[in-house]
Amino acid sequence: MTVAIPEKQYFKIGEVSEILDVEPYVLRYWESEFKILKPTRTRARQRLYHKKDLELLMEIKHLLYDEKFTIAGAKKRLQEMKKQTSAEKKAKKPAKAIKTKDESDNSEAKNDNSPSMEHSDYREILIEIKKELKELRSILEG
């Protein structure tokens, strides 16, 4: 099942309902059953779904409607997929080399003040959050 997801940051429940061709009450039910699914809420308690939420919902619909999984079976399958994805991510990360005492002494002496990998990751995440907050603010003000 391939559905084109529009290039937007957030989607209201009605839009998601149309994209996935399911009723809004089905989406609300899935949200209560699949704890991994947590759309953002506005102050008016309106659901706003991210693109990742839509992808997850498409997978849930596929498992339930096409593969004929039960809710419990779909939950289990999603957990397996999540574990598999995190295992693949770990496999892609380069293993840290074990340093000898001499190497660690040299690296401490260098101290080149370059940002660590973790620092740049946090920076990217914060930039993305800032973009999302600006877009959410424009939605709420508009």
Automatic annotation (TrEMBL):
Q: Where is the HTH merR-type domain?
A: 10-80
Instruction: Report the source organism.
Output: Desulfomonile tiedjei (strain ATCC 49306 / DSM 6799 / DCB-1)
Protein name as catalogued: Putative transcriptional regulator
Alphabetical list of SUPFAM superfamilies matching this protein:
Putative DNA-binding domain
For this UniProt entry, the molecular function terms from Gene Ontology, in alphabetical order, are: DNA binding; DNA-binding transcription factor activity
Source organism's superkingdom?
Bacteria
Chain positions covered by the region annotation Disordered: 81-121
Stretches with biased composition (Basic and acidic residues): 99-111
Pfam families, per database record: MerR_1 (PF13411)
Q: Which UniProt keywords apply?
A: DNA-binding
